[in-house]
What does this fold into?
Amino acid sequence: MTAAPACFVYVSNAADGDIATFKLQPDGTLQPRARVKAADVVGPIAVSPDKRFLYAAVRSKPHSVHVYAIDAGTGALTPLAVSPLAESFPYISLDKTGRYLLGASYHANLISINAVGADGRVAAEPLQVIPIGRNAHSIRADGSNRYVYAPALGSDQIFQFAFDANTGRLTSNTPAVVQLPPGAGPRHFVTSADNRFVYVLSELLATVTTFALDAGTGLLTEIGSASGLPPDTKLVPGAPRVAVGASSSAPPRNRDNDIWAADIHMTPDCRFLYVSERSSSTLGAFSVNAQSGALRYLGSVPTEAQPRGFAIAPDGRFLIACGEKSETVSVHAIDAASGALSTPKQYPGGKGANWVEIVGFA
It folds into this structure.
């Protein structure tokens, strides 16, 4: 009998300052493994394309990235290096070669690129630091690794770049910006496996906007939008939030009913797409039309409290979510036919959990 592929789940716990490791069993059970120290307010994590390294950005000062070697047999993380980062980054990713670390800074309104060595270590000096629109919230390369996109939540824009993987440098595309309607608040996005569509989540509306991606130019063209909330929701459109440590002259107001969407992921077969919404602590599900890219809202289910981050297993059978206001991790089974999410099984986690990465080994 062939052994099931090993699959490991990593969760960053900002309040505990560590990263938790779990082994994901074929039946969806999570087995806790060791937790490794990072630093206070450890935030986004990312895994190298070759699955050898895990990167964790620290949002407290001094801003840095912790690099860990991943043991393919046990999933264990071994601290490898710590490098400075230009700013506090709520989002990091690697290009498709794994040679460059991309970061987006919400309160500094910028993006940066650092070279990554063959040994996984991140260069101390960035190759580029580029100011963009207000509240940069994510940055990712497309499937071809020729283009990079960076949504700016506060200015309702998506910045479009051409990317040179030989030098690691970005240059503005033409046009440089896709302008969204006021109050959209673009946050995170995913690209379809065939690289034809980009799906952008609005933090302030919980809508997902579908863009066609031109393979020749890298330019995005909007083709539709769908809400990730039920029609009878009591939530109202949100507003950009002041970054941690920043000040605001605006009077405080109750945000309990503000839409506050967070994360977005697609199943490996691209048939279903999911988003998290923090005010209602729910996950919204969509079916995806592979030909047109159109989305159809399927429904929402409860999950962890204030679910900032989640991820989908490589085989598409399970969705694992964490919550900033919970100390458990949820495993939702994904129905292969309908995309429906099951009532979750919960496992002990950490405090201030905000990000999930899943790594599968054959």
Observations:
- The radius of gyration is 19 Å.
- The mean pLDDT is 96.
- The longest strand covers residues 169-179.
